[in-house]
Amino acid sequence: MGRDLVLARVGRNSLHRSWIDQGKPRNWDLYLCPFQEIPSQAGLDCIEGRVIAGPKWAGLRTLLQEWDGWREYDHIWLPDDDIFATQDTITRMFDAARALQFQLFAPALSENSCYAHYIGMRNQRFFARRVGFVEIMVPGFSRAALEELLPTLDLSTTGWGWGLDSLWPKLLDYRDMGIIDGTPVFHTRPVGQFRDAELGRRVMEESDRIMDAYDCRQQMVTFGGINADLQDLQLSADELLVQLTEGWQYLFQQNPRVLRWIMAHQEPFFHWPAYHPAGAPTAPDQAFAQPRQQRSSGDADDRRRELQTEAAGETRLSQTMVLGES
Q1: What is the pLDDT of residues 290-306, one digit of tens each?
Q2: Does residue 70 sit in helix, strand or coil?
Q3: String of b and e for 95-134 (b: at least 16 CB within 10 Å)?
Q4: Which are the contacts of 48, defined by CB distance < 8 A and separation ≥ 6?
Q5: Residue 243, H or E segment
Q6: CA dihedral of residues 82, 4, 232, 180 (deg, nearest 10)
Q7: Residue 62 DSSP SS3
Q8: Would you say the C-alpha torsion 89, 90, 95, 96 has a positive or negative sign?
């Protein structure tokens, strides 16, 4: 038995076979939770559960409530089945999440991936980032975090789960959440497309309802960067912003608005001085001799503490409401 678990909702076109190198040792297990009949998995080192029809999060809710086996693992990754990843990448993702003590995490999406939220895309300047949002596409959880957040799955009556990824960070006080850029996976299919317009409307309404009921929203902020040695980088707010924009520069040609969104999402959590009427006179030989601005880690921690303070009473109420509705 491995230390960690990959638990995937899969269909006939699932890419989960790419996740395993047959005959190569690994320290995690694969559990398949099909939403339709799938071909025989004979020869594949995995656990195949019964078919549970319906959307991803409806099936996962049923399985997690019926099967307690997941509680024996340290971390549980719940990816979509259209993710292409290697066994080594998944192993390194779990190792990084453990070393960084992330409660909620995700591998970044590779540069050629289909994506919805830029914050989930690989940032080429960091090995990992401490963030305020982890999308429901490929989330991973510590066992303790999943136990705490499991009742929230009852809030998604559509089974699509939209809005839960805005609630989870608030319930976790925006602590110990990360995106691991050094272990990117490839998301192969377009996102946000509904063949049924009425279903799309209901999913969006449900997302809005969850966010309104629990006074939460998508916090697309990066609080700090982590290097390949798994050390938090000491960057000022300006330095962090520069690194973020450089690391995501490959996104700008296709969608220039990403640059504006990065700035808009970072600004509420950091303090930048207003532009002085005299400008910022700087000679080339002085450019790197200027005193640093206030450290980003302090700025972000201050703002995160404000969020935690604002959310403290609401979080307890939210958890009570969730448990009362489950």
Answers
A1: 444 444 456 667 666 66
A2: helix
A3: bbbeebebbbbbbbbbeebebebbbbbbbebbbbbbbbbb
A4: 32, 34, 41
A5: helix 237-247
A6: -10
A7: helix
A8: positive
pTM: 0.88
51's tokens: 């078919």
Q: Could you read off the pLDDT of 193-228 as tens digits, one per residue?
A: 788 889 999 999 999 999 999 999 999 999 999 999
CB 235 within 8 A of CB 224: yes
Which are the contacts of 174, defined by CB distance < 8 A and separation ≥ 6?
Answer: 132, 219, 304, 307, 308, 311
Q: What is the pLDDT of residues 43-102, one digit of tens each?
A: 999 999 999 999 999 999 999 999 999 999 999 999 999 999 999 999 999 999 999 999
Burial of 197 (0-12, 13-18, 19+ CB in 10 A): exposed
Residue with tokens 């939220």: 117
